[in-house]
Specification:
The structure is a homodimer.
Chain A lengths: L5 H10 L7 H13 L2 H16 L2 E2 L6 E2 L5 H4 L4 E8 L2 H10 L4 E5 L17 H10 L7 E4 L5 H14 L5 E4 L15 H9 L7
Parallel strand pairs in A: 3-4, 3-5, 5-6
Antiparallel strand pairs in A: 1-2
């Protein structure tokens, strides 16, 4: 695409680096911004920059935070003995949205994936073990593994379990089964098989 | 969506003002940018700001431009007696991409649309008439109306034609007909009807 302006071209090239944004969408964004008033564009420009300059990761759980220790890790109202291990920040938000979990979190920043060159030392695993060993910010009784059910997630689960067992914490994982609202007919057999195997008492 | 950080929230809110971007995409963009290196994020942030601070509109055709007069309007290689009237900057790019047009342009910045509150004075119509009256940047012999075939486009065409006729310029418009590659069976009847009515000599 030949653009009539170098400045527009630069903005389009930059916007097209966002995930899932092609040159055509980037151009639409750029032309839209051109028409917006300057203050709004300045606000957007600064908000983006602040993501790098002002945003922190919590010292303990590595979730994004405006402060050195995030509100969850510093809250006395949470069950501070339970730590839920998740892949990324979105997963924390997803679990928080259920309002069913009152413990703390630990964001690994990925899962072990030799194909993508992501090993044990690229993830926040050492800091998880240190949390348990030092009891800082709180003594840990239970670690809930809430990683994706993929080969990489399973590998990471397996590795973490082996590291955690000697530390004397209880290791649990998310229940797998037929999703609420799903019909059995269209549930994949592995999920259905697991849900029969791990059947639970009926709550009448 | 409850975000764990005010700074992240601000970035998501700002990104979600882009056309067609919802909160979920905005969050994906923001989390992506968080992981990028600072120089890249700074480049993006500045490129966006430059759209307001550094980008101009050509004094004559109102296309976007890095300079006061755009490269097309200042080129002596173009057919400077022909002016193609289009709705917006994207239309200029679309026509330029065909490499079939060597004249100049005039970007109206929209079409007459009473429902959206866009009237004659919100568009670059007076400046088009002035270009013809003054012969600046070049004497105009022909005006090609290349507006969309919508009610608003037709209204604008009609209005422009009435203004242009007294000025003694030739007014033409884009050929309408069956698109190249389309089968007659699936062409809408208005298009097919027009293409029979305005049939052209066969080029053997």
């Amino acid at each position: 695409m030949d653009l009539p302006s170098r400045i527009l071209q630069e903005a389009v090239d930059q916007l097209a680096t966002l995930p899932g944004v092609g040159k055509r969408s980037a151009l639409r964004y750029a032309l839209h911004l051109m028409k917006e008033d300057e203050q709004h564009v300045r606000d957007l420009s600064e908000a983006i920059m602040h993501l790098k300059t002002h945003l922190h990761h919590c010292r303990y759980c590595h979730n994004v935070s405006d402060t050195e220790v995030c509100p969850i890790c510093s809250s006395e109202k949470r069950q501070r003995g339970i730590v839920c291990v998740v892949e990324n920040v979105q997963d924390v938000m997803a679990i928080e949205n259920t309002q069913q979990y009152r413990g703390l979190y630990h964001v690994l920043g990925g899962v072990i994936s030799p194909i993508d060159g992501i090993g044990v030392h690229d993830l926040e695993i050492a800091s998880l073990l240190r949390r348990i060993e030092t009891g800082d910010p709180a003594p840990v009784e239970e670690v809930v593994l809430a990683l994706p059910t993929t080969m990489e997630g399973d590998t990471t689960n397996y590795y973490l379990n082996r590291q955690l067992q000697p530390l004397g914490v209880r290791v649990t994982t998310l229940a797998r089964g037929v999703a609420v609202g799903d019909s059995l007919e269209y549930t994949d057999e592995i999920t259905l098989g697991r849900s029969i195997l791990h059947r639970i008492p009926f709550e009448g």
